Amino acid sequence: MSDLKEFKLPDVGEGLTEADIVRWHVKPGDQVIVNQIIVEIETAKAVVELPSPYEGVVASLLVPEGQTADVGTPIISVNVGADASAGPAEAAIPPAAVIPAEAVAQRAISETEDLVPTPPIDVAVEPGMHGSPAPKAERQAVLVGYGVKLGTTSRRVRKTTSAAADGSVESGNGVARPTTALAKPPVRKMARDLGVDLGSLAGTGPNGSITRDDVQQAAAEHTGGPVPVRTDRAVTAVAREERIAIRGVRKHTAAAMAASAFTAPHVTEFLQIDITETMAATARLRTLPEFADVKVSPLLLVARALIVAAARHPMINASWDEAAQEIVVKHYVNLGIAAATERGLVVPNVKDAHAMTLPELARALAQLAETARAGKSTPADMSHGTITITNVGIFGVDTGTPILSPGEAAILAFGQVKDTPWVVNGQLAVRKACTLALSFDHRLVDGDLGSAVLRDVGAMLTDPLTMLAWS
Predict the structure, then answer these.
(1) Which H, E and C letters describe 74-126, residue by residue?
(2) Which residues have a Cβ under 8 Å from the Cβ of 434 and sit 6 or more positions away?
(3) For the chain, which domains are there?
(4) DSSP secondary structure letter of residue 139
(5) What DSSP element (H or E) covers 469?
(6) Residue 439 in contact with residue 266, Cβ under 8 Å?
(7) Helix (H, G, I), strand (E, B), or coil: what is residue 32?
(8) Annotated catalytic, 442?
(9) In Å, how far are 135, 265, 302 from 409, measured between CA atoms?
(10) What is the arithmetic mean of pLDDT over 335-344?
(11) pTM greater than 0.85
């Protein structure tokens, strides 16, 4: 006998309150097992895969892709104990809990040239579905690795709606009301691209439907000129402006960077160095058997130099505790590496990098970069960093003024390495040179300390043997 269960969005990080549904891996009618990955969500820190806490048949997806949901919101319902192979009779789902009114409305008007209502009509819900918290025995199971934190967030109970054959929608009190504007999917997409509100238009198409010309005319009136039209298959029209929702990683990064910039008084110092010997040492390391299975780049020695400098000057690896009015000095290094990804800037860190051998550090950096590029960095990967490196040289720029990662005292920018005229033993020569930039929190790092750290890192990269002497 089946039992309908809802899986609520858990807090997968440290006090996160919401997440975006990125991609569903299942659909209604699919058989799922416990711990099977069912959905990818994007939190304020990372993209996370959520496993199913139940075994059974997917009844419905309660939150669509691209929508933001609060922690504690039901996102999927599963018929626990049902078997998809048993057919509809055994895996039956209560109609009010499964079939959204939007789907009913779409079917009702499907014969009108594939017209669909916009925006979506409220979903019908089972009585009590979003009411008071379920009894203790009915609460969802907590999966390994994260749990559910109780909060005050709740979802508004929506009125049940249904669609009539004439395209009108019946509200919960039995009074018929007209549907929203009708438009074909390509027209709806064009309206989204152009920023046109379909609800404000009077359609000139069949049955009052909105056409492409209607949308383009409205967009032209709004922008004060003709709307350029692209001929590629992906986009048929483009507006002069585009609006992108601020969500997930980028939303968190923007808030964190703004808070850091206006909380910690930043100071940035610059140092141009001859890095020829470091480049030669990097090439030599690549030939050693200990590094045969990992890519070695100059960033490895930059990382080691910063770790050594942090050991020589512990205050650079500290944080400012405003609430306690204390400076917290960390005698370990969780080395952050800023990484540009499709979803925005992330800063995962190598835990206890100070305790690693050079080959171990090389593998850890390679794994960190691979995970970040794949969008698989977890909230744990990006938590509790102590000091950071940003490799701006890979973008072909000399240096920058990096903003501190929140809670850290310093960040080192490593600029591009290029051939540069340099005086060596009184003679002009062409050498490999780069520019380092160190930003630090002036509340706990004075100018002389920041200068000493930057000078030490530069000395070790100018002559890698110095790194061995100071380690």
Answers:
(1) EEEEEEECCCHHHCCCCCCCCHHHHCCHHHHHHHHCCCCCCCEECCCCCCCCC
(2) 272, 273, 275, 393, 398, 414, 415, 416, 417, 418
(3) 3-93+125-159 (2.40.50.100), 181-245 (4.10.320.10), 249-470 (3.30.559.10)
(4) S
(5) helix 464-470
(6) yes
(7) strand
(8) yes
(9) 47, 10, 18
(10) 86
(11) no
CA distance 120 to 158: 13
32, 78 in Cβ contact below 8 A?
Answer: yes
Which one, of 402, 76, 62, 22, lies nearest residue 247 by Cα?
Answer: 22
| CA quadruple 454, 456, 459, 463: dihedral sign | negative
| Separation between Cα atoms, residue 28 and residue 60, nearest integer Å | 5
pLDDT tens across 56-112, in order?
999 999 999 888 888 899 999 999 987 766 654 444 444 433 434 344 334 333 333
Query: Burial letters for 73-109: b for 16+ Cβ neighbours within 10 Å, e otherwise?
Result: bbbbbbbbbbebeeeeeebebeeebbbbbbebbbebb
Whose tokens are 């917290």? That residue is 328
What is the percent of the chain where pLDDT is above 90? 48
DSSP track, 285-328: HTTSGGGTTS---HHHHHHHHHHHHHHHSGGGGEEEETTTTEEE
- What DSSP string describes 257-279? HHHHHTTS-EEEEEEEEE-HHHH
The SS3 of residue 22 is strand
Nearest of 228, 248, 200, 275 to residue 433 by alpha carbon: 275
Rounded to a whole number of angstroms, the distance between the first and last alpha carbons of the chain is 66
* Omega before residue 53 within 30° of 0, cis: no
Q: Give all strands of the β-sheet with 37-42 in edge-to-edge order.
A: 47-51, 37-42, 18-24, 68-70
Query: With bands split at pLDDT 50, 70 and 90, how would you rate the model's confidence at 18?
Result: confident
CB–CB of 148/66 below 8 Å? no
CA-CA-CA-CA torsion sign (445, 448, 449, 455): positive
Show the 3-state SS of 405-440.
CCCCCEEEEECCCEEEEEEECCEEEEEEEEEEEEEE
CB proximity list for 362: less than 8 A, separation 6 or greater: 291, 294, 295, 296, 300
DSSP 194: H
- Distance CA(129)–CA(112), nearest Å, equals 34
Over the stretch 360-402, which tens digit does the pLDDT of each residue have? 999 999 999 999 888 888 888 988 999 999 999 999 999 999 9
Dihedrals φ, ψ of 5, to 5°?
-120, 145
* Helix, strand, coil distribution of the chain in percent, nearest 5: 30, 25, 45
